Every structure is written in structure tokens, then in C-alpha cells.
């Protein structure tokens, strides 16, 4: 079902200020979607509306065919995982995870709670108090607590932003694994394009409360349609073409050492496998990346370069 979660012409406002105007999108059952965009573009506001934490100025939200627009959060069958873990510090991992089921008055909850704790890899910590866990582990408790009530949709707001690089990777794997095993539909918010690319099946890119582009992660990475999307996905060179259309190149698509253009090396940053040069040219600044095992250019040196058309992405206005 491609419209398992459906936002139809949703407008969200804080008082008189519209944060998200007329937003529509659909999500399929079992999809893992990233809402991506810079700070203030309306990602969190959109999540809050899906969760029922914020009323709609207009429009509707459906989940699994049911109109949830006017339902309170507890009736929407939506789970929420925030960057701050909001765990009960005086309760154990087990008790934290069991909480939602107890509140619902469910009996015989032990197998469900244990399965949820196991699914996030924390079985050996079940009896530990949550303040005695690492940030990454607390995040996993938070995830297990949301999963145990078997939500139709799991909403994650910047779920990895408090974690260091290694834990992020670990958590990404936990999330993907959970999606695969439970088939739960997930929507997560991030401002980090690499995180969106690593995790999401599909990316919805937002700017100023509107969708700029949405599509499969790979398509978004390879074929951004606008200057904004290109810039967001690391096409750092955006130049006007002779036909009036802008074209964009990644730094590693710029050929240095030969070509019809000339510039002066202004600076260099070492990136391990490659060096990225900032080159001053009469078309503006260009960034070009070159494998680090090739000889380095010196600052002030004049270099020839090419902007290969085969590696350019043509952009639409906007
Ligand atoms: N409580 C509030 N009152 C008034 N305006 C708000 C409130 N919360 C958010 N906004 C405004 O709504 C817009 C969208 O904010 P939102 O938090 O949804 O953005 P975001 O994309 O999630 O940003 P971030 O990544 O920084 O969390 C912004 O212009 C913001 O200033």
C-alpha cells in the first residue's frame, strides 16, 4: 500500500505564523523515510503533527486508512523516539520498556518486553537502571520502549545526532535490522544528508516548510533537481551554462591538471583518501578533489582543469 501514511494538504502554524504550508506526501507500508532539510525547514513540526502533538490548521492525516487528524496521540498507534531519551531514571531497562504495555493494562507482557529488549541488543542489561547506560544504550531503550507497543508507524526525531560516529553506525544497523524484522513503517528526521542516505529507502527533502524533491536515496544523491538540492547533496560547484541552465559538479568530478580552464590554487584540505583544492578562477571559486596518492599542488600554483559535461547535473531553476 503506497499510502499507508498520507498527509493531504496539511498546513501547520504556530499562532499566526505558518511553519508548514499545504504539505502533501504519502508513505508506503514498511518504508523507511527520511525527512531531510536544514534547521527550521519544518521537519520536527511535521513529525509532531503526525504524532498528534500538534493540531492542524487545515488538511488531513491518514494512517492505515484511518483518518487520525483529530485523534489524540495515544489513539494513533504511533511510536516516538526523540533525541533526548526521556527514560524513567528510577526504573530498570525492563521496567522502562514494559511501561507502555502496563499502562494499557496488558497481561502476560514478559515475552513481548523481552523480545523488544532483545531486538535492540540489550538483553544483558535488562535489570540495569537507565542512567547507568551509555548514551547509545539509552537510545536503544527508548527505541525498544516505542517498539514494544507495536506501533503502525515509528517516528524518530534526529535519532542519531547525540551519538558519536561509531555508535551512529551501530544504531543505523539496529534500525535497519528492526525495520527488516518487524516491517514497521519508519519516518525519521535529520538535517544530515549522509545519515539520510545511509538509512532511508526514500528521502523527502524540505525547505521553508515545503517539499523540494523526494525520491529514492540514490536518485536524490545522483540527480538533484535544483540548486538547493544539489548544494545539500554535496555538489559544491554550481555554474551557469551557455544555455542559461545551471550545472553542478561534485569536487571529485572536476578534472585537475588538464583541460580548457585555468585557475590558481587558493587552499587545500586533506581528506585522507583525497585532497580537496579551492581554486580561484574567472568563473568564481571551484572545488576539486584529487586522489591523495597523486602529487600535491602548491598554494599559488596555476592549474588547468576541466568541467566534464558527462559528470555534470543540469539543474532546474529554483
Ligand atoms: N513553538 C514554536 N513557536 C513558534 N514558531 C515555532 C515553534 N517551533 C518551531 N517554530 C518555527 O517553525 C519553523 C519550523 O520549525 P521546526 O522545528 O519544525 O524545524 P526543523 O526543520 O525541525 O528544524 P531543526 O532541525 O532545527 O529542529 C521554524 O521557522 C521555527 O522557527
UniProtKB/TrEMBL annotation:
SUPFAM superfamilies: P-loop containing nucleoside triphosphate hydrolases (SSF52540). This is ABC transporter ATP-binding protein. The lineage of its organism: Bacteria, Pseudomonadati, Pseudomonadota, Alphaproteobacteria, Rhodobacterales. One of its GO terms (molecular function) is transmembrane transporter activity. InterPro entries: AAA+_ATPase, ABC_SmlMolc_Importer, ABC_transporter-like_ATP-bd, ABC_transporter-like_CS, P-loop_NTPase, Transp-assoc_OB_typ2. Keywords: ATP-binding, Nucleotide-binding, Transport. SMART domains: AAA. GO terms for cellular component: ATP-binding cassette (ABC) transporter complex. GO terms for biological process: quaternary ammonium group transport. Residues 5-233 form the ABC transporter domain. It holds the Pfam family TOBE_2. It comes from Thalassorhabdomicrobium marinisediminis.
Amino acid at each position: 500500500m503506497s499510502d499507508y501514511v498520507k498527509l493531504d494538504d496539511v498546513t501547520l502554524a504556530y499562532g499566526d505564523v505558518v511553519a508548514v504550508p499545504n504539505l502533501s506526501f504519502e508513505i508506503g507500508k514498511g518504508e523507511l523515510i527520511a525527512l531531510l532539510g536544514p534547521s527550521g525547514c519544518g521537519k520536527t513540526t511535521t513529525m509532531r503533527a503526525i504524532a498528534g502533538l500538534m493540531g492542524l490548521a487545515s488538511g488531513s492525516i491518514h494512517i492505515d486508512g484511518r483518518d487520525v487528524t483529530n485523534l489524540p496521540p495515544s489513539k494513533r498507534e504511533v511510536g516516538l523516539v526523540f533525541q533526548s531519551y526521556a527514560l524513567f531514571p528510577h526504573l530498570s531497562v525492563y521496567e522502562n520498556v514494559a511501561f507502555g504495555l502496563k499502562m494499557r493494562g496488558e497481561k502476560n507482557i514478559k515475552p513481548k518486553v523481552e523480545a523488544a529488549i532483545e531486538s535492540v541488543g540489550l538483553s544483558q542489561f535488562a535489570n540495569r537502571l537507565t542512567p547507568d547506560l551509555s548514551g547509545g544504550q539509552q537510545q536503544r531503550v527508548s527505541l525498544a520502549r516505542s517498539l514494544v507497543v507495536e506501533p503502525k508507524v515509528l517516528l524518530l526525531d534526529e535519532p542519531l545526532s547525540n551519538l558519536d560516529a561509531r555508535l551512529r553506525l551501530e544504531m543505523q544497523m539496529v534500525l535497519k535490522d528492526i525495520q527488516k524484522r518487524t516491517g514497521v513503517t519508519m519516518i525519521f528526521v535529520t538535517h544530515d544528508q549522509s545519515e539520510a542516505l545511509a538509512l532511508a529507502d526514500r528521502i523527502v527533502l524540505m525547505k521553508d516548510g515545503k517539499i523540494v524533491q523526494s525520491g529514492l536515496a540514490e536518485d536524490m544523491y545522483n540527480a538533484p533537481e535544483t540548486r538547493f538540492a544539489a548544494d545539500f547533496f554535496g555538489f559544491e560547484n554550481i555554474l551557469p551554462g551557455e544555455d542559461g541552465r545551471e550545472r553542478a559538479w561534485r569536487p571529485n568530478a572536476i578534472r585537475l591538471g588538464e583541460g580548457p580552464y585555468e585557475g590558481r590554487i587558493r587552499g587545500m584540505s586533506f581528506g585522507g583518501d583525497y585532497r580537496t583544492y579551492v581554486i580561484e578562477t574567472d568563473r568564481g571559486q571551484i572545488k576539486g578533489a584529487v586522489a591523495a596518492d597523486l602529487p600535491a599542488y602548491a598554494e599559488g600554483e596555476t592549474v588547468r582543469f576541466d568541467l566534464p559535461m558527462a559528470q555534470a547535473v543540469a539543474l532546474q531553476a529554483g
